[in-house]
Amino acid sequence: MEGKEIRISLCMIVRNEENTIARCLDSVKGIPDEIVIVDTGSSDRTKEIVTKYTDKIFDFTWIDDFAAARNFAFSKATTDYILWLDADDVFADSDREQFQKLKKSLDPLMDVVNMPYLLAFDKFGAVTFSLRRNRLVKRSKNFRWIGAVHEYLEVYGQVLNSDICVTHKGTGGDDSDRNLKIYEKSKAKGEAFSPRDLYYYANELFDHQLNDQAIEYYQKFLMTGQGWVEDKISACGKLADCFHKLGEKDKELEFILKSFEYANPRAEFCCRLGHYFLRAEQYEQSAFWYKLATQLEKPIDSWGPMIEACWTWIPHLQLCVCYDKLGKYELAYEHNELARKYRPGDPQVLHNKKYLEGVLGLSSRD
């Protein structure tokens, strides 16, 4: 209804973002009524660039605590709702238009709006990895950020699951050791790690290929019996990856299967099992799990990390491989064609098509 449009503060924490900040702020045009920028110690042109967009620029001395910096930024907001982004995030044109419509129509009783966060794309531009984040929150609720590293916004109340997407466009310029150093410093002080800290510390160790230490902390996390179910499932996948790298096949299988303790089978883990048996040349077992992946119903509004390929084309492509190995060429061709619907220009899919048409004596089909 006209005249009922909500007012929005965009709150961001930044540091040395001269290469990305303008792109981000250009992409939000027409959404925020005020822009609050908290700088945690830039030594480049970030603040100079930001002055073209807002005069609400504040300095915050970095204390190895992301939640503290974000809470400070939120404290400077003055409008109805707060939106947060990182400097390497953007709204695509279509998402910005949708957000502008939401701004005019949002029920003022709504406390939280969550949005898909698109984190990775393939060479064809299709989303390969995504999750959900609480993005827009009512300022009067005084929601707080929690956690020095991998902070999260603690929310409650009326929640809207939106399909407006935030797109991450990383530049590879991040300080990749920063988070690990914060955890190591906290550990050296003897500070207690929450289950969530154990999980994210293990992730940092995993990302730095410290597999033995990552295994230790993922297992410590799972042994607490606490934490978010999506983190438990993800920890099982990361443990399987670690044991795979270490050549411990039995342990790899153990933790793929352990994921089923926490939720119904996910396509990602069915594909893991399919790949496990494919490597072992156990093609019937491999086909079973890949086929199951194709039959699962994709969760709606899932909050956990989602590998889109496992819910779409990968199991079909791998079923093509399995059925070819089993001499079931018609089935192999059928599943390759299903993969081709998702990946019409994929060289591997096109190679399979040509090969199987030769095997089956088919004339080339479009």
UniProtKB/TrEMBL annotation:
It comes from the Bacteria. Residues 9-101 form the Glycosyltransferase 2-like domain. InterPro entries: Glyco_trans_2-like, Nucleotide-diphossugar_trans, TPR-like_helical_dom_sf, TPR_rpt. This is Glycosyltransferase family 2 protein. The lineage of its organism: Bacteria, Bacillati, Bacillota, Clostridia, Eubacteriales.
